[in-house]
Design goal:
This protein has 199 residues and is α/β, with parallel strands linked by helices. It has one domain (2-193): Rossmann fold, CATH 3.40.50.300. It has 9 helices and 5 strands, in the order βαβααααββαααβα. It has helices at residues 14-24, 31-37, 44-53, 66-74, 77-105, 137-148, 152-160, 165-169, 182-197, and strands at 2-8, 27-30, 110-114, 129-134, 174-177. Helix 6 (137-148) packs across helix 7. The longest helix has 29 residues, at 77-105. It is globular and about 50 Å long. The protein starts with a strand and ends with a helix.
């Protein structure tokens, strides 16, 4: 089975590209969903986060208040690294289990794992090919402000906390530019998927 890593910075359109890949027949695992699952109430990840950050980051239903935790870690590099050191190993373990299951289902299939911090965490080394989704910086900023209802300062803090897009592209076997919107991104994704099928 062909294992594809898909990454890109915050608010560049990774989720849309994943939707298209799923439509085309790839197995796709969304890293945000995995990250939520490994910190669901009662899990080891949840317990470790509460031990590290306190129970005041919990919502009334005992779920972690992600915006609240995000505000804490994006304001403090040490706390962000602490959170990543808790969540990344759990996410990678879950992804590896998922890859084994997909390979058992269809050894000739294409499995795509989407993760924002795949390069930073070193997780990209597990994949046969890497796709980096990106867009123009001004468009990324606008999308993030609108999507998360953030001020420009808050949005820039989140963007700047990640590896620069240009650096991510150096790890790519394929890149998808979403600056021109959905249709252009879909066309690029289809071309890449056709190339992956030939590998």
């Amino acid at each position: 089975m062909l294992k594809i890593g898909l990454t890109g910075s915050i608010a560049v359109g990774k989720s849309y590209v994943c939707e298209v890949l799923r439509e085309l027949g790839a197995f796709v695992l969304d890293a945000d969903r995995t990250a939520r699952e490994v910190v669901a109430p009662g899990t080891l990840g949840w317990q470790l986060i509460i031990e590290s950050f306190g129970s005041n980051i919990l919502l009334p239903n005992n779920e972690i208040d992600r915006p609240e935790l995000g505000a804490i870690v994006f304001a403090d590099e040490t706390k962000r690294q602490l959170l990543n050191s808790i969540v990344h190993p759990l996410v990678i373990e879950t992804q590896n289990d998922w890859l084994r299951q997909r390979a058992a289902e269809n050894a000739g299939g294409i499995a795509v794992i989407d993760a924002a911090l795949m390069i930073e965490s070193g997780g990209y080394r597990r994949f046969d090919k890497m796709i980096v989704v990106w867009c123009a910086a001004a468009i990324q900023l606008q999308r993030l402000m609108e999507r998360n209802n953030l001020s420009e300062t808050e949005a820039l803090k989140r963007i700047n906390a990640q590896m620069p897009q240009e650096e991510k592209k150096r790890y790519a076997d394929y890149t998808i530019d979403t600056s021109e919107g959905f249709d252009a991104a879909r066309r690029q994704t289809i071309v890449i998927f056709e190339q992956l099928k030939l590998l």
